[in-house]
Amino acid sequence: MTTAMFDIDAVRAQFPALALRHDEHPRTYLDNPAGTQVPQRVVDRMTEALVEFNANMHGNFNTSVQATELVRQAHLAVGDFVNARSDREIVFGPNMTTLTFMMARALAPRFQPGDEIITTHMEHEGNNTPWRTMAAERGLVVRTVPFHLDTYELDLDALGSMINERTRFAAINYASNLLGTINPVQEITRRLHEVGALVYLDAVQYAPHGVIDVQAIDCDFLVASTYKFYGPHQGVLWGREELLQSLPTYKLRVVPDVTPDRFETGCQSLEGQAGTIGALEYIQWLGRTAGVDLRPTGEGLRERTKDLHAGMRAMVAYEEILSERLIAGLESIPGVHIHGITDRAAFARRVPTVSFTAPGLVPAEMARFLDSRGVYVWNGHSYALPVVEFLGIADAGGVVRIGPTHYNTVAEIDLAVSLVAEFLGR
Ligand SMILES: Cc1ncc(COP(=O)(O)O)c(C=O)c1O
Prior knowledge:
With 426 residues, the chain is α/β, with parallel strands linked by helices. Helices cover 40% and strands 13% of the residues. The mean pLDDT is 97.
């Protein structure tokens, strides 16, 4: 793809926040790995829900009937986004972390003292602490897969040596929110299933940057956060229906004992689910415009899934241009050390999130300098504590993280790179 093939102006016009200013500067959002801006469609969907049918579900009156239907539609839409078999496999929650703590509590009774679970040094805390807490409470052994410090990819040989007949469960990152590495989750799942272990994938960082197909991966659970892919603050979990139905839950007597209701206790965020529909409608729109040539043609996918995949593929193709530009720009600055894949031949195995350090650099100071020019980036560990600990930079202030997404421009990348160079050149 070339930048000319992707109508970036049409894309940007969808996002009202992109037109805002920061003093005399345009705002440049490169904080996207932490959360993206939302298209007008999301604002409209949320407003509609709050104004037209702001009611709880399952009542026998107009607004409640509409609210109930909206919630059903939200589950269907997310089901199509991840290619679930059924909307009963989709559980909404406030965010990934809360859903993961809930699943750790539900899964814990399946495991016996001495059973082994696997996780990696590439995790965000949200896919780390819930499982380590479960392991400590149940007397489980935790094995942690390292990543290679030269390629920033998981050490699959080490993973292989950790899998044995006692391995019961694995919590694995789909894409790292600090390194940007995309892990071979299909291959990892296949190996873990050989010994009957359950596989829980954290797709929070991957979801904004790639096509998700839970049936192709064949994992057991996958979790994501819609505020990372152009929606409002919500978490979504996909799980195999038979597993979701069989796990113990902590629910009120009045809640039906069927999935997903048995996990969605209490009143859910109607407006959050409405906004989630809006975000997926936006991705569908992108699929039907920028992604027409990228639409999957084969049988077996629902029509909306094909549109969503086309939208995601269009984003990925454009983002690769931004990644290349950003990495080449940072590499040209003396002293900058990128913690992530820089080999062009391996770019398909990274999302555009780029983290770096430099000798003497205080990441927070650089972030404040960029902010003074209207450029928003994150510094520190971004909750990927296992990663900065493994890299040995936790006490040095972590990294500066520049995270483009498909609504950023090449000019914005160039601006960020020039400011990094200016700051380091002082
Ligand atoms: C890879 C990854 N996992 C999990 C999370 C936690 O997501 P949430 O804020 O929805 O709990 C994040 C948030 O940054 C993340 O990047």
